[in-house]
Amino acid sequence: MQKLKVCELFAGVGGFRLGLENTGKYEVVWSNQWEPSTKTQHASLVYEARFGHENHSNTNLEEVPTSEIPDHDILVGGFPCQDYSVATTLKNSKGLIGKKGVLWWSIHRILSEKENKPKYLFFENVDRLLKSPSSQRGRDFAVMLKSLNNLGYAVEWRVINAAEYGMPQRRRRVFFLGYHKSTEIYKTLQETSPTKWVLERGTIASAFSVKKQGVPISFSLEKNLVSLSNSFNLEKGLSPFLNSGICMGNEVHTLKTAAEYYGPPGVISDILEEQLPDSEFNIPEADIPKWEYLKGAKKEIRKTKDGFEYNYSEGSMVFPDALDQPSRTIITGEGGKSPSRFKHVVQTSTGLRRLFPVELERLNMFPDNHTKLEGISNTKRAFFMGNALVVGVVEQMGNGLFQKIDALEEQLQS
């Protein structure tokens, strides 16, 4: 089978591309990365330095005409988590708009306008997506699933914690795959029991083995997208979406699953560099009490700016980080010297220090110094890794998808 052509949106510094290209089975034919809040497009500069500027767009995706995006087999991206509510507009007979600046609707627009729609979709987001917004838990995901169903796609999803599959960072993200109704996977999914697909037969199950926990739930999505957006889960109860599931033809089947993995764990000690005695990452003795306070348990009275007093409490965190465990999730504020509750600190032969940028890259399974570039600060490199995905998850999923397509094509031919 030939390589699948990929269009990569919200490309960041290229985690999706690395994961898919590592398999040798995908080729990126067009990419887009645009950061609205900064003048210098740092992530795009890194992307172009690593992959070249050909077929790379550094323009606001909302302003890119669909005609400029080449045809592709699979559309991928880790899109921003925003408010995905739907509204109607009198001028637009189709009646569907999202809020301006909400990039899900740019994906929707590309899929709507493409005459040759991509056969497959592969998206990533924070797992909070399954239960947002707090006023209508699960509504945002319901709107997405429904809008993809309307465009002819079935969807399967899973929340994956990379550390539960032997990778060195505890990073929980929801991954979802879409299959166009013209594909063999769609037809196979139609003929397979939903629970069997989620646990055994599905693409994600073949890449990341799971076991069942609890009872499957099934429900229908309202046919009208706008009324779905307005009325979904108004009771303000828990989200009906569990950590695994499929949605096809407005029917949702969802199930709680747990990772099934028996290999060695990935741990922090696997990714550590040799210590540099005079490194800027070393923590001065004078700062250690501040770090200990921020990482420690607290029960104290605090004041708001208006002078209102309230009780504040939080539990303690392991300090320094345990070297024989996977790391905590890297967040965008990981960089910089100032003491923080959430930054990683390790004990080495020469004392306590923060993690080097190359070690943060390794926790996301990027190549060493992928983000090292003139004009890119160490703080910015840490920010990139706080925004990135774990490359190993994408690689495994990409392999699983390609093998599924290949196997079904072989069956057709035999």
**So how many helices?**
12
**Strands of the largest sheet, in order across it?**
3-2-1-4-7-9-8-11-12-10
CATH topology of the largest domain, what is it called?
Rossmann fold
Strands, total number: 16
What are the low-pLDDT stretches, counting only 5+ consecutive residues below 50? 88-96
Structural class assignment: alpha/beta
Helix share of residues?
25-40%
The dominant shape is globular
Major sheet attributes: 10 strands, mixed
Radius of gyration, whole Å:
22 Å
CATH superfamily of the largest domain: Vaccinia Virus protein VP39
Beta-strand residue fraction: 15-25%
What's the number of domains?
2
CATH class category name of the largest domain: Alpha Beta
Distance between the termini: 15 Å
Mean pLDDT value: 92
Provide tags for this entry.
alpha/beta, two-stranded antiparallel ribbon, DNA Methylase, Chain A, domain 2, 23% strand, 414 residues, globular, 2 domains, Rossmann fold, 10-stranded mixed β-sheet
